[in-house]
Amino acid sequence: MSRAVLLDLIHGCCPTCAGPSLLEESASDPHVFLLSGKRHRDNHPFLSSCRSAQVLDSDSTAECLYRLKQTVDRRDLSSVTVLTTPQGREVLVRYQQLLFTAAYTFHYKVRSVDNLACPSCSGSAHTGSPGEGVQEEVSVFLQQLPALKGDVTVLTSTLIPDCFGHGFSTRSGGVSYAPTLSSMNLFSSRGRRDPGAVVAENRRRLALHAGFHPKPLHLVKVNHGSDVWVLGKAEPESYDGIVTDQTGVVVAAPGADCMPILFADPVSKVIGAAHAGWRGTLMGVAMATVEAMVTEFGCKVSDIVVAVGPSVGACCFTKEREEARGFISIHPDCVPDPESVRPHVDIRLANRILLQKGGILPEHIHDDAVTDRPSVTPCTSCHPELFFSHVRDGPNFGTQVGFLWIKETAEQT
């Protein structure tokens, strides 16, 4: 299997010092990179003699390793062997944690500084605190990257009153560059190639555009169920709904075909957010969120308004017949072609019906059935230029979110 080999000159390791066994092992690798940075750009003797390797000599280590990641991704590699020193490993692991995910495998082969053979390396190892300032350096670098796919764009519902801030993100204006993640991907996981630092930068840009920076963003920890967390109580390990009456915090739910649903009570000033996929819909996560608002904060169901964000439409979403039966039991219209091998399923209609059965007024729901308001519920699979979609893009899909917060009054501010 092809791999990348990274030779760390910044922290004191060159081919002479790496030893003949390591050199012989990596000689057949076509993907060799020299991490020289700005400091060694012009004065390391090995740079002029190694013509086949790609030199990473940007002004910061963060930029060097980001360039490495871009090249590794472009060449469809996932394994990186790093030749470095003990201190170099300690520092580079920190960059790895910020700029890569578990989709990449790093193997560190370490040479002690005491055993460095050449004067160039023995005098080049850093003496400062390992890893000091790495996170800030990475953040500053990412903030300087240009936005991809245009400016940040957010959909808002005219049903939610102005005493709340809210929106549904789209895929433009972020810095994620992988085709299925570009560019405003707002969630990082072990199996995808978008690291935590990049997602954090995307979230920062969204917050600045939407007006909630630097308020903390509380994103539900999805388990495709109906558990709801009341913010302020002990946080469960996973949940698909969140409710609060606190100002100064933003609640959010992810979606990439699944529905991000926002709930707002303008009378009691209580908000909620829920992630409703097909499983969560059948388990009743939308009404579970409403019930938490009623039980915990005394809301009246008739006061609550609901906005359903971008999600997969019945046009693009199919399930096995056995799974579709659960939606037929909600209402036959939720499955327009029940005799098909894979029937189409309308999860948005299913949630509307369940919410109305639970007491939410029909006119208090903004979804794709509403035609007299600007749409906030387009089909994610049908609009690749605007939204991420698991159905369309496969397992390395990006994530958009619906977000909501209670605006502070002038007195609170």
TrEMBL record:
Interacts with FASN. Interacts with SDHA. Interacts with ATF6, EIF2AK3 and ERN1. The keyword Endoplasmic reticulum applies. GO terms for cellular component: endoplasmic reticulum; nucleus; peroxisome. Coiled coil: none annotated. This is Purine nucleoside phosphorylase LACC1. One of its GO terms (biological process) is innate immune response. Pfam families: Cu-oxidase_4. One of its GO terms (molecular function) is copper ion binding. It catalyses: inosine + phosphate = alpha-D-ribose 1-phosphate + hypoxanthine; guanosine + phosphate = alpha-D-ribose 1-phosphate + guanine; S-methyl-5'-thioadenosine + phosphate = 5-(methylsulfanyl)-alpha-D-ribose 1-phosphate + adenine; adenosine + phosphate = alpha-D-ribose 1-phosphate + adenine. It comes from the Eukaryota. Its EC number is 2.4.2.1, 2.4.2.28, 3.5.4.4. It is found in: Cytoplasm; Endoplasmic reticulum; Nucleus; Peroxisome. InterPro entries: Cu_polyphenol_OxRdtase, Cu_polyphenol_OxRdtase_sf, Cytotoxic_necrot_fac-like_cat. Keywords: Acetylation, Cytoplasm, Endoplasmic reticulum, Hydrolase, Immunity, Inflammatory response, Innate immunity, Metal-binding, Nucleus, Peroxisome, Phosphoprotein, Transferase, Zinc. The keyword ATP-binding does not apply. Belongs to the purine nucleoside phosphorylase YfiH/LACC1 family.
